[in-house]
Amino acid sequence: KMDIFTSIPTHIDYVGQAKAEKLYRAIITLFSIVGFIWGYIVQQFSQSVYILGAGFILAAILTLPPWPMYRRNPLNWQNPRSTDEKSSG
Fold first, then answer.
1. Which of 17, 47, 51, 53 lies 20 to 30 Å from 61, alpha-carbon distance?
2. Alpha-carbon gap, residue 26 to 36, rounded angstroms
3. Phi-psi sector, 7: left (phi>0), alpha (psi -120 to 50), beta
């Protein structure tokens, strides 16, 4: 029954991390600017907070799960050395 949880990928690569961080910053910045302007127009600070909260939720949905777009550049690990090579070093 727990096999479904072990089959879910939980990693992203370094390029994917950079992509996710750029996307997160762009979404939060955009929503904060829009929220500030809209809150100023309607003179309601709560509207600014709601818009920023919506941006946070959107950014979390798009950046926290390990979507396939964040796993396109896997690391190429080196092959392990044999025990004979380790003892001669």
1. 47
2. 15
3. alpha
